[in-house]
Amino acid sequence: MKQSDKIEVIVVGAGPAGLACAYTLAKAGVEVLVLERGEHPGAKNMFGGIFFSSIMEKFFPDFLSDAPWERFVGKRKFALLTGDSEMTFEMSPSTFNRPPFNHSFIAKRGQMDQWFAKKVEEAGASIIPNYCVRDFLYEHGKVVGITSGGDDDSFLADCIVCAEGANSLLTERAGMREKIGPDYRSIAVKENIRFTQSVIEDRFGVTGQQGAAYEYFGSSVKGLLGNGFIYTNRDSISVGVGFSINDFINLGNKKTPNDILDEFKAHPSIAPLVRGGETVEYMAHMIPSDGYTRLPKFYRDGLLIVGDAAGLINASFFHEGVNLAMASGIAAAETIIEARKQKDYSSENLSCYEDKLNASFILQDLKNSKNFLGFLKTHKAIINEYPAMMNDILVEYFTVSEKPKTMIKKEIFNRVRKTVNIPKMAGDMWGAWSNLI
Known about the structure:
Blueprint: E1 7-12, H1 16-27, E2 32-35, E3 50-52, H2 54-59, H3 63-66, E4 71-82, E5 85-91, E6 104-106, H4 109-122, E7 126-128, E8 135-139, E9 142-147, E10 154-162, H5 169-173, E11 185-194, H6 197-204, E12 210-218, E13 226-232, E14 236-244, H7 245-249, H8 257-266, H9 271-274, E15 278-288, E16 299-300, E17 303-305, H10 322-342, H11 347-350, H12 352-359, H13 361-368, H14 372-378, H15 385-398, H16 405-419, H17 422-436
Parallel strand pairs: 1-2, 1-10, 2-7, 4-12, 10-17
Antiparallel strand pairs: 3-6, 4-5, 4-6, 8-9, 9-10, 11-14, 11-15, 12-13, 13-14, 16-17
Helix pairs in contact: 1-4, 1-10, 10-12, 15-16
């Protein structure tokens, strides 16, 4: 390799973070090469959820008419499953059902990433698929390039952006993060089940391009830290579960991830929604759950880390990832553009990337929810025992009988007092309010 062959910027990974970075750089006239491990952008990504589009719409004002989204999210439901019962909060605000549709769309990453990648190439960046980056190249401690294992398949660059995804071994090798372990990763498994559009509209109460996003907590994953979900595509639904890998390991190999998904689908509240469909796709994917206190180092000489590789996932009830990934990619690109003017890609000069993250909603939101997963890990009664107790109380209270309501309330109180440590429950509820909401 010759210095004359050096590329200005190499982006490792063609997901939302990497593509947003490459697009911003290319539009500024920077030479960019994107290296993607899959056959094409989006080929190895599992996504059956909500694409938060506010950042994408800044790139492409015609997003609504041009992008390959499935449905806008006009209806949201949050439910607690307990045994064979369900308690639900559902919302369908009028503002969510008219443009810009709360910037929330159900999408398939395989289609969305390819559409975005085409825009990136039109802006002037180059994308090479089927390229697996094995390691970074170093010179005097500075990252100066990447390699797939041999000199013939290596590239030099002024700056590298790592957008490798959740299982970012490159950041480990570069000493940017602690070793990835099961305590800080979740796994999501899902099926796409095909239906006619009319069945989806009737079954989920949606019309036209309107879609529904249902999220299920409580016993949806049978005691594991996680949840279930259903999202309506145009002619299919995405049904899945996500849960802590560490919790799953502690089951002792008694079940497979698919067993947990099947149990979720068999619940009396879920079974009618998936009945009669044809499963056309099955996939699984790892999700970061590092949290604010375990984020990696974001920069070093010649290198910036973005998106899932940087652990930038809001794993609270908001389940945001794509918008954080894209915002981090843009912040990295802006940092590189500033460094390019000075021809200085040192750690000191790239440190303003972290300043940009701190000043944005990205790290502010992660900091706000920093205790979310830790609190649930040590207070599992909130997702297991208390929902079941609440269900029993409501069923008993609203059961029609000739018993006076005052007597029913007294019986309920006495039963709760005998089975639950009320001061502890009050403390748990206060902790939930403080850390989860």
